[in-house]
Write a structure and sequence with these properties.
Layout (H helix, E strand, L loop, with lengths): L6 E6 L7 E5 L3 H4 L5 E6 L3 E11 L13 E2 L8 H13 L4 H8 L7 E2 L2 H7 L5 E7 L6 H11 L3 H14 L8 E2 L7 H9 L3 E7 L17 H16 L2 E6 L5 H14 L3 E5 L3 H15 L3 E4 L5 H13 L5 E4 L11 E7 L17 H12 L2 E6 L4 H9 L3 E5 L10 E6 H6 L3 E2 L2 E2 H12 L3 E5 L8 E4 L16 E3 L4 E3 L6 E2 L13 E4 L3 H11 L5 E4 L7 H12 L5 E4 L12 E6 L3 H4 L6 H13 L10 E6 L5 H8 L2 H14 L6 E10 L2 H19 L3 E5 L5 E2 L2 E11 L4 H16 L8 E6 L2
Parallel strand pairs: 10-15, 10-16, 11-13, 11-14, 12-13, 14-15, 17-29, 20-27, 20-28, 26-27, 28-29
Antiparallel strand pairs: 1-2, 1-4, 3-4, 3-5, 4-6, 7-8, 7-9, 18-19, 21-25, 22-23, 23-24, 30-33, 30-34, 31-33, 32-33
Helix pairs in contact: 2-3, 2-12, 6-7, 8-9, 19-20, 22-23
The structure holds adenosine-5'-diphosphate and zinc ion (2 copies).
Length: 755
């Protein structure tokens, strides 16, 4: 019955399942190619966008094969390099191509509908403009004159025709101009069109942008030139190079220089940054050099903007500079010459939820192979993985020790919070050491940044009488007090509740805020320095795009004196008037229960310290901690990355943690506590038969209930030298077995590769 199909197409749909096969017949058979976006119907009514993955002649075994509804765009939506990247991600991170599709394509490119009409309504339609030209019948001098004669009695049409002739100028016959230059009255235009005098056509509004022009490149210092030369040399042999350059050493200027060389050769450049808040400052810097070639891509843009960017790049002939967060990895750059991963150590390159749980930094390295491009990673505090790859010769490694322009690295002072409390030298959350320096800096008209790794007012409220704490009813965590909203909020599920006046448990005590977050710091600063202008940068103040632009713009322009923030303020910013940085509580960084805690604490403290003293004024940093002798604190003060790396790597090696082994973190979830434990016991036993002592768990994670579901986790460590690919295959089999077990229908399992 479906012999009408000449071929079959495997189509990727934005679902967790496998690819589906559809029939291809009629005129589509000649046009369809891999990468094309198509509309297909799945089930009784649902219409999906799919991507043609493979064309073949193998009829699937099912009884009826459906045909493709229609082709959505003339050109394929993706190129071969990208398709290979999706395949690599699906294989390595153990997810479906459809899940990759969900992350990769802007939402307007993958509409879904319950009817053809609904689907069409949601489909992206490019903005169009009307363009007008003379119709063939009027396209000679003689015919045109005649037409003018005839139109004498219709003065408005006559006038519009004059405007058209005027606007067409030298291209009177054959040219076209935007309709708004001819008349603003659509009725007049329609009349002219109906009489066959003019032709009106719709053209896409945002055509490919012209990318031309000379760049004004920065003059590199001798040290920077040396680093750039070494990077070029290493690229001769290796695809990926790690630039390990101190904060303020001018890594961005080196990137710009190397990017310009790619653009001059007609190739595209992709620059990945960890944080949207960061892109604003960086884009301004890049635009000064590369002008309109610079495009940004992140979640702060509208769906339409992202879709237009995607389609424009898909048609570009090269010479593009794209700056974006991790998802920009999926943009269809066809002439990719270089991927720069700035602040490569940053955890936000990894997407932990939902699938695909990919790390954009690691994918960039894979892309060098798939797209034939180069990769440059930069950081003042490289991840130990990249550092090791540099040492072992897998990546090239270039060191840049000095700050640009003779600026000095800041002096770091450790201030003991316990000692200060004993001596009565502590006011609320500030030691005298810090307060005195803040007063001095403000007096001199310099700026101050304060880092506290927690947002909200205080992380929990506790009854002073009975010790009751406010907890989320759906998650096993305390609720954070957000004072300005007069609410308690769960940072895991978003649950909110009012702040109780009286303790709901004992009925006598008053719950009071304990601990402190950025909101409280802001409050206290306002009380301690009433004349200072204070701003706060964290997830709560940057919900809108204009939010962070305003906060950063004000601080940059000197309209605020003190910027309080979470780790958002640590990343890559370049403010020239900051002379003092305070780290308010290093303890919660040092005590974090994770094998990366030491590395992360070093990176965060060094990065935030690196925001001080970047301009003319010398910088100072105060670290408040109750553990002044903690090795990581000592290493930060000494600026000794190598010492940190040595000690941390020794620990990692002893326990086969990365980079000496690879990890898969498995989480089982269920609303049914008993079923979850039974499933975990069985699953654990099976895995242990395969992996032995490489498997840890099951154990409850630090937060063992989220959104009403109980959680149990396993960690699988595969030491170097063992096949990780085979381990993943065996793991996938066991996961599939668990998921198909009717007894455990309520149990979900999530696998996070290289968490
Ligand atoms: P990094 O990213 O390594 O921390 P940046 O690239 O932000 O450092 O550079 C620090 C500061 O020095 C910036 O203000 C930058 O404009 C300036 N700078 C660096 N290199 C140059 C250069 N070659 N010419 C002019 N200014 C430079
Ligand atoms: Zn109480
Ligand atoms: Zn919750």
């Amino acid at each position: 019955m479906d012999s009408e199909f000449e071929k079959y197409a495997d189509i990727v749909l934005p679902l967790a399942g496998p690819v589906f096969t559809f029939g291809v017949g009629g005129e589509l058979a000649a046009r369809l190619a891999p990468g094309h976006g198509v509309a297909v119907q799945l089930g009784a009514r649902k219409i999906y966008t799919g991507i043609v993955w493979r064309l073949h002649s193998e009829r699937p075994a099912c009884r009826t094969v459906k045909g493709i509804e229609r082709l959505l765009y003339d050109e394929p939506l993706m190129n071969g390099g990208q398709m290979r990247l999706w395949e690599w991600i699906a294989d390595y991170y153990m997810c479906s191509l459809g899940e990759v599709m969900r992350a990769a394509l802007p939402s307007l490119l993958k509409p879904l509908g319950f009817s053809q009409e609904e689907f069409d309504l949601r489909c992206f339609r490019p903005r169009t403009l009307k363009w007008v030209s003379l119709a063939a019948r009027t396209a000679t001098a003689e015919a045109l004159n005649e037409t003018f004669e005839r139109l004498k009695r219709a003065p408005r049409q006559y006038e519009a025709l004059i405007e058209l002739a005027d606007a067409l100028g030298g291209e009177l016959f054959g040219g076209a101009v935007p309709a708004r230059r001819v008349t603003s009255d659509t009725a007049v235009l329609r009349a002219l069109e109906k009489k066959g005098i003019v032709t009106v056509e719709e053209r896409e509004a945002a055509g490919p942008q012209a990318v031309e022009g000379e760049f004004v490149l920065p003059l590199l210092s001798e040290a920077q030139q040396g680093a750039a030369r070494q990077i070029r040399e290493q690229w001769q042999r290796l695809d990926t190079v790690l630039l390990h350059g101190a904060t303020g050493s001018g890594k961005t200027e080196i990137y710009i220089t190397l990017m310009a060389e790619q653009l001059a050769a007609g190739r595209d450049v992709l620059m990945l940054v960890p944080e949207i808040a960061l892109t604003a400052q960086l884009i301004a810097r890049l635009r000064r050099v590369f002008g309109d070639r610079v495009t940004s891509y992140h979640s702060g843009l509208t769906d339409r903007q992202r879709t237009e960017t995607y389609l424009r790049l898909n048609r570009s002939r090269g010479g593009e500079v794209v700056v974006g967060v991790r998802s920009s990895l999926f943009l269809p750059l066809r002439h990719l010459g270089l991927v720069v991963v700035d602040e490569e150590h940053d955890g936000s390159f990894k997407q932990s939820d939902p699938a695909p749980r990919y790390n954009a930094r690691d994918c960039a390295v894979v892309m060098t192979r798939l797209c034939g491009c180069k990769c440059l990673m930069g950081s003042a505090t490289p991840s130990l993985e990249s550092y090791m790859n540099g040492l072992s010769g897998k990546y090239g490694a270039v060191r840049l020790g000095e700050r640009y322009g003779g600026a000095q690295l800041p002096r770091i002072v450790v201030s003991d919070t316990l000692r200060a409390a004993r001596r009565n030298e502590r006011r609320s959350h500030f030691n005298r050491d810090l307060l005195d320096r803040m007063a001095g800096a403000l007096e001199r008209g310099e700026q101050v940044m304060l880092f506290q790794n927690r947002r909200g007012f205080s992380p929990y409220v506790e009854c002073d009488d009975c010790g009751w704490t406010a907890r989320c009813p759906h998650c096993n965590v305390t609720l954070t007090l957000h004072k300005s909203e007069h609410a308690l909020r769960c940072h895991y599920c978003g649950y909110r509740s009012d702040v109780p006046v009286r303790c709901p448990s004992c009925g006598v005590g008053t719950p009071s805020p304990k601990g402190f977050g950025t909101e409280k710091v802001e409050d206290e600063i306002a009380a301690l320095f009433p004349r200072a202008r204070v701003a706060r940068l964290d997830r709560d103040t940057t919900r809108s795009r204009s939010g962070y632009e305003r906060i950063i713009g004000d601080f940059e322009a000197g309209r605020t004196d003190i910027l309080v923030g979470t780790q958002m303020i640590t990343k890559g910013f370049d403010f020239s008037r900051v002379s003092l940085v305070g780290i308010l509580n290093a303890d919660n960084l040092l005590n974090y229960p994770d094998f990366r805690a030491g590395e992360r604490a070093f990176q965060l403290m060094t990065q935030v310290a690196g925001r001080a003293g970047r301009g003319q004024v010398a910088g100072e940093v105060v670290i408040q901690t109750s553990q002044p002798a903690h090795p990581v604190v000592v290493q930060v003060v000494a600026g000794d990355y190598e010492a940190m790396a040595r000690t941390q790597l020794a620990d990692r090696q002893a326990f086969f943690y990365p980079p000496y082994g690879r990890l898969a973190a498995l989480t089982l979830k269920s609303g049914d506590h008993a079923r979850l434990h039974a499933a975990a016991a069985e699953f654990g036993e099976r895995l242990r038969r395969i992996f032995g002592r490489r498997l840890l768990g099951p154990q409850p994670p630090a937060v063992d209930r989220i959104k009403g579901e109980h959680l149990l986790s396993f960690l699988l460590k595969i030491e170097g030298g063992r096949s990780f690919a085979q381990a993943r295959r065996l793991l996938a089999e066991e996961m599939a077995r668990l998921l198909s077990d009717a007894r455990y229908r309520s149990v979900k399992v999530v696998c996070n590769i290289e968490p």
